[in-house]
Design brief:
CATH topology of the largest domain in chain A: BirA Bifunctional Protein, domain 2
Helix content of chain A: 25-40%
CATH class of the largest domain in chain A: Alpha Beta
Radius of gyration of chain A: 42 Å
CATH superfamily of the largest domain in chain B: Bira Bifunctional Protein, Domain 2
Distance between the termini of chain A: 79 Å
Strand content of chain B: 25-35%
Shape of chain B: elongated
Radius of gyration of chain B: 42 Å
Strand content of chain A: 15-25%
CATH topology of the largest domain in chain B: BirA Bifunctional Protein, domain 2
Structural class of chain A: alpha+beta
Order of helices and strands of chain A: HHHHHEEHEHEEHEEEEHEHH
Oligomer: heterodimer
CATH architecture of the largest domain in chain A: 2-Layer Sandwich
Number of domains of chain B: 6
CATH architecture of the largest domain in chain B: 2-Layer Sandwich
Largest sheet of chain A: 8 strands, mixed
CATH class of the largest domain in chain B: Alpha Beta
Number of strands of chain A: 10
Largest sheet of chain B: 7 strands, mixed
Helix content of chain B: 25-40%
Chain lengths: 355, 802
Amino acid sequence: MSDLKKIKEEFLSKLNKKLNVSEINQIKSDLFGKNGLVSSQFKKIGTIPESERKKFASDLNIIKDELQDLINLKINEVEINEINEKLKKEKIDVTLPERNFVRGKIHPVSQTIDEISSIFSEIGFSVEEGPDVENEYNNFTALNTPYNHPARDMHDTFYLDEKKEKLLRTHTSPVQIRTMLKDKPPFKIIAPGRTYRSDSDQTHAPMFHQVEGLHIDKDINMGHLKGYLNYFIKEFFEVDKIKMRFRPSHFPFTEPSAEVDIGYEIKDGKIVIGEGDKWLEILGCGMVHPNVLKNVKVNPEKFQGYAFGIGIDRLAMLKYGINDLRSFFECDYRWLNHFGFDPLDVPTNYRGLSR
Amino acid sequence: MKITYDWLKDHLQTKNSENQLLEKLTDIGLEVEGIGNTSSDLDKFIVSKIVRTEKHPNADRLKVCDVDIGQKKIIKVVCGARNAKEGLLTIYAPPGAIIPKNKMKLVVTQIRGVTSNGMLCSDSELELSDESDGITELKYSKYKDKIGKKYFNKNNSNLIDLAITPNRPDCLGVRGIARDLATAGFGKLKDNKINKIKSKGKQKISIKILKEKNQGCTIFGSYLVTNVQNAESPKWLKDKLISIGQKPISAIVDITNYVMLDLNRPLHAYDADKIQKGIVVRNSKKGEKFKALDNKEYKLDEGMCVISDNAGVLGLGGIIGGIRSGTEFNTKNVLIESAYFNPKSIRKTSKQLNIDTDAKFRFERGIDPLSIEQGLIKAANLIKEVCGGEISKIDIQKVDKYKEKNINFEIELFEKISGFKISKKEILKILNDLGFEVKGDKKFLKLKVPSWRPDIEESIDVVEELVRIYGYDKIKKIDPIKIRSKSTLNKTQKLFHFLQRSIATKGYQEAITWSFTDSKINDLFKSNMKNIEIVNPISSDLNVLRNSIFSNLTIYLNKNLDRGIKDLSLFEIGPIFYGSNPGDQETVVGGLRSGKVSRLSWIEKDRNVDVFDVKKDVIQTLVESGYDKSKIFIDDQTPNYYHPGKSGRIFLNKRKDKVAAYFGEIHPNILNRIDIKTEALLGFEIFVDNLKQPKKSLKDQKNIYQVSDFQKSERDFAFIIDKNFKSQEIIEVISNIDKELIRNVNIFDIYEGENIPNGKKSIALNVTIQSMTKTLKDKDLEKVNKLIVDTVENTTGAKIRS
């Protein structure tokens, strides 16, 4: 057996034992140190007869590489074992609770307003606003509801002065007046906001929310009214089919006027919108009365269109199965947390209104 | 308006079912609000005969009656009526029946030890009349063969409750509803036969309408019916009134009510013998008094329309009659009034006196001025039929003529508004059936509006009639076009939505509370604002508009604390009010946080929420909304509801801006006042209307991207400085030394106490220095260091800590 082979055999067996890092390093220096076994073999190359030199050098290099690789492997293995040992000792109970976090929520009425705005945005409506305190003229007279008209009895009004000139708006319709006085036709707006009536029971709260719609142009007729509202309701309830009924009604500021019912049924104690043979009233609408247009200096011979008013709270109740209107305004933390929406759930066209 | 199908059939010839009726009513705008089942309730009442009575063994005034109810078995009923005697025919109510008067449901009961199977009823209990003394006595001849039969006529007609809109007074009478139904193809309207009364007798009571300014009465028609015998109404009439939930009183009163309900023609009946020297219709004088049929005495103002005689006011025309001239059972001569009262006058008077009656409701909506005679004839004939007597000649006084309304209707308008076409023939048929008189050519129709339709004033009203009758379901949907020519939200609205959701991401639950609040709580938060009172609040604790979001938010936060929830974060974004004029409002985001952070956490020590928590929430929200943090300036001037030492005021810019926000601890006195128990209560208010919109839009801001890849250095400094010196200022001083090089200044320690002189504090800062153009050499850095120390020492009086 040649020296080389012997060295290889011997150290292979040494390296195959269980070793720590310093023992491996010792072996490394025994082999490749200044006077190491392999190093000294290299020094010998010059003395080897020319005919064998080439083969010797080649064998030596192979053995060197083999042993070096093995040593590196071994060091790596030991180091990994040592790290693993260390990590094992560091093990903790990851089932312990995380640090406390708090989660904010968006009120269902705000979420519903954003949903409504998102739908109407797509069909070209922009959002207008008006003040909560209104004068008597904008809230009633300009809307073709003169003083001493019985239609005023339909609105129980909060007043801010004895003369009844200043009041809390009873509907969002005065925003129609403000918008039309401010700008020129065409108009295509919605106006969500707070409204007030001095009425309070299970189904009435002294404050509630409405969204007003106004669409005035040269040739907007009842077909548009029906088509646009049908589109809105279908989108809002996120259903493919919607059963909708227009029925004649009366509002002083629209002529003809209509109320809109949607079909529903109760399935397993839950309300299902769009099916069934029961009807639920959800909004009032109609063609804007020529007198209203005259009051805001819009020529009814040239322009016509529709307006509507929808109860936002009512829509939210139907969509999200909320039973009691008053609970919207009672700020019960548990209720807000349950019915509220994550602030990142912004209703949009591309990702849909809700998850 | 309550009707029954049976009553409708008096005017309508139809074979349709009740369900079809309900559907049709709704389709033509006469909304069915409810269906009451009065008749089946009354089905249980049975004609019965008392076969034997004996004294109750344990009660002197009670009798035990054996009653024949037409079945094999005679049953026992305990009865207290004195007139309960053997052989009497009366009305029996079995267990399960509901007594109309008190809505009590009968059950089998023990009365002093004797079982009573139901009850024998009195007129008053059945609301047949006011007679409550004893049980009803039925005429033997009429009822002897009807024992066991239902007392109330079996009619399948349910009570239908209609919500008649205020523009349709004509449908406050059954006939008007029938006309609408017939027009819409639901049966045929029957003729309204009026037998003209031929009489020779003069109407002897003089009637005079004074020609005064604002006279509320324009026409007054009357008949005098003499020698009547007022009595209970006949059964058909009682049944009719009962079927729609009205209570029969006496024939004369019932007849006037019947005509009103049937034709929407309100009438009034006077006992003619109680009228002193004729009737004068005039404006009231201030202070005049009269006692009305509701047993209340009214003190009148000037200018109310009154019916009067020589002795004073008899009644308020079209609203309510007076007791003095009311008819009674012994009334001999009746004056029936059928008049026209001006709706505005009626409404004004009734509002002033706060009276609501059936007549008022009708007159203020507008009664057909041409129905005077028709109503009078119908009533007079009925009175004669029921009570006998002679009818006088008719007397009609007028101070104003009825002006007929004419509309020139352009046929094309129908399609222009409705979006669909119907034939001219169809149009003519509908208008004729509704009572219009129509003349016309190809393009225009000359319409004479029926006198019973005060709501129809112009062409658009005619369009509504046509669409309504033809059917709203015929309107063809036009799909929306998805084109947006204007942005949906303006900048302010976008900011509103951003702030709302940004605050929520900081862990706050959004609340929506009333815009009004309790003035007692509002007082705590209103600073120097005035209370804005609501004249007619819904309750005394919601009596003012809120001057601050905090008033309601603290109330509701406290309710949640009472529920045992301790760590609360609530916010509301909405209006607060500083005046009572439209627009005297601004939008505020108000938030409250209570309790602790990391409560009951195994990993982190808990602590009370504090000023710097809410400060972080506000600043982060403002920065997220696009405001430059480096420009934000804070001082300690805050309203009195904040802790004076632990609250701050935020400006977006040091010099000129309005207050952007307040933050801080809520004043401990307020917690005491409203009895709030929590470890800590912090709040903030962001004044949305004071936030100037950033000049640059986001896309313009993104355009500029500048960062430095040259080496940056950090240097720490500690200064000893006056305790009250504001740290904000020292940061500002350092930042301003060289805006090119000094990138960031951070305070990492504040220390007072040992080794620091009294009245001083140590403030440790870390300053990041980096150039945009080169790597700084030690020499450059030294220069900056020295400049920082010198400038801070010179401008603030601080000393570097060595």
